[in-house]
Design brief:
The protein is α/β, with parallel strands linked by helices. The protein contains eleven helices and eleven strands. The structure holds NADPH dihydro-nicotinamide-adenine-dinucleotide phosphate (NDP).
Length: 318
């Protein structure tokens, strides 16, 4: 039986619609949330991500700014850019798009962002709040996964969750959020032995490794929920033919465009899983929706605004 497909685009849209009302309320109180995105250099993927984030702000009527220092910027000069954004009262949310160029000390830059404006949730203060399960700004992608699970009615409490990937941005915070919701959590990484066997113990399998179609059906317990966080671009026709053998539409699209986005989960997993997020259209749209949620949350807290008259149905993370 084919897996139930969890539609991230639809859920992301629901969240944005709920936020729209809250933003109207804030504007009526004379407050327009403001987000600044710092995009260093000309990494094409980063350019697309930042463009989509700015578009989401525009769509919701938020104030946004894109700052584009050159790829040659020094750590000190970037710290000065961040410091200036920290001081500006109309900026509620700061994101520094990663990765930064090699000569820049990423940790120092992330540490310099005012924790109250840290909408990516990367500052150690927000990381600490997450570990301690205290209020704070949560990283957008893991928060989006939790929201997707909650809104899809997928039980977490008491279930076995296996997270593949231990990055600070996705794997680790995702594992903590699942733990706080009472899952029994295992974290896997590149040194994990017999990964398929560990993965098969999962009721909830979450792949965040950045390896195209790595998670094949033999990783998956029949009926498990599989969340595919990976975003990988494939350009090789032989790979596409192999991956999309049973999916003529996707193969056709690959031939037309010369490339395709695939997750960390092999498309054939749909034959085994109970529920599955697609790529694209799964976790991706939730990441941006949660960035907007965090921007509104940061604004309300920084500017002492009361709880919304029309609270959103956000269930998972706050
Ligand atoms: P990282 O490269 O920082 O981390 C990858 C993790 O996967 C590491 O912990 C690594 O283990 C583990 N890993 C890699 N290869 C294997 C393997 N063969 N077996 C087991 N574990 C392995 O990536 P990110 O966490 O930043 O991103 C992960 C994926 O999610 C990427 O595809 C990225 O594009 C995508 N992503 C998607 C977002 C979205 O909005 N949907 C947002 C952010 C990321 P080790 O630590 O041992 O090296």
């Amino acid at each position: 039986m084919a897996a139930h497909i969890l539609n991230g685009t639809e859920i992301g849209q629901q969240i944005r619609d709920e936020l729209r009302q809250q933003i109207q309320e804030l504007k009526q109180a004379g407050v327009t949330p403001g987000l600044a995105a710092v995009l260093v250099g000309d990494n094409p993927a980063s350019q697309i991500y930042v463009r989509n984030k700015i578009r989401a702000c525009e769509d919701l009527g938020l104030y946004s700014e894109r700052l584009t220092p050159p790829a040659t910027i020094t750590t000190d000069d970037l710290l000065a850019v961040v410091g200036e954004l920290n001081r500006r009262p109309q900026i509620d949310a700061i994101l520094v798009q990663l990765p930064l160029p090699r000569q820049v000390d990423t940790r120092r830059v992330l540490l310099a962002v005012d924790p109250a404006k840290d909408v990516d949730g990367f500052h150690p203060m927000n990381v600490g709040a997450l570990v301690a399960n205290r209020p704070g700004l949560r990283p957008c992608t893991p928060a989006g996964v939790m929201e997707l699970l909650a809104r899809s009615g997928i039980e977490i409490k008491g279930r076995r969750a296996v997270v593949i990937g231990r990055s600070d941005i996705v794997g680790k915070p995702l594992a903590l959020l699942l733990l706080h919701q009472h899952a029994t959590v295992t974290i896997c990484h590149s040194r994990t032995q017999d990964l398929p066997a560990v993965a098969r113990t999962a009721d909830l399998l979450l792949a965040a490794m950045g390896r195209a179609a790595f998670v094949t059906p033999d990783f998956v317990q029949p009926g498990a929920t599989v969340i595919d966080v990976g975003i990988n671009r494939i350009n090789d026709p032989a790979t596409a033919e192999q991956l999309f053998a049973g999916y003529p539409q996707r193969l056709e699209e690959f031939r037309r465009k010369g490339s395709a986005l695939v997750g960390d989960v092999h498309p054939d997993v749909a034959e085994v899983a109970g529920a599955l997020t697609p790529v694209p259209g799964g976790v991706g749209p939730l990441t941006i929706a949660m960035l907007m949620v965090n921007t509104v949350q940061a604004t309300r807290q920084r500017r002492g605004q009361p709880a919304p008259a029309h609270p959103s149905k956000l269930a998972a993370v706050r």
